[in-house]
Amino acid sequence: MAKTKFILNRSGVRELLQSDGAMRVCRAYAQQVAERAGEDYTLSEYVGRNRVNVSVSPGSAEAEQDNFDNNTLLKSLGG
Fold this sequence. Notes:
Blueprint (H helix, E strand, L loop, with lengths): L9 H8 L2 H18 L3 E7 L4 E7 L2 H10 L1 H6 L2
Antiparallel strand pairs: 1-2
């Protein structure tokens, strides 16, 4: 079998990872996590140098304590 050399187009991959489509996919996953965690959890998103970034975090002191006591966000990832 002949080996095929594969050259990655880095700028193309970066463009894909920074695209609106990638943001929509990441936002959808983050919204599912936030919904499973509860209503006091918020999303933040931005386009970084190499890729889009979306995070879920506690939006209140009560949610922060709940996450600390129960690992709410971690458990919400597995659902």
